[in-house]
Design a protein that fits this description.
Immunoglobulin-like, mainly beta, two-stranded antiparallel ribbon, 6 strands, 55% strand, single chain
C-alpha cells in the first residue's frame, strides 16, 4: 500500500501506525522524506486504521484489506 501525503506539507520524519479495529497496534514505522510504502501482506484481512504523524499534523483513515 502506498500512502500519499499532501504535497503542500513538507516533512522530514513521518510515523505511520496501523491498528486493527479493536485498537491493537499491528505495525509502526518511521519514514524520512519520500514515498511511504507500507507492507500489508502480513496484517490479515479486514478493516484497519492507519495513522500518520507528521510534525504537528495527524492523519487518520480506514483501509480494508481483502
Amino acid at each position: 500500500m502506498r500512502l500519499i501525503i499532501d504535497e503542500k506539507i513538507e516533512y522530514q520524519n513521518a510515523e505511520v501506525s496501523i491498528y486493527d479495529i479493536s485498537g491493537a497496534l499491528l505495525s509502526k514505522k518511521n519514514f524520512a522524506t519520500g514515498d511511504i510504502n507500507l507492507e500489508t501482506n502480513n496484517l490479515g484481512k479486514g478493516v484497519k486504521i492507519v495513522t500518520a504523524r507528521i510534525g504537528y499534523y495527524i492523519f487518520v483513515d480506514k483501509i480494508v484489506i481483502q
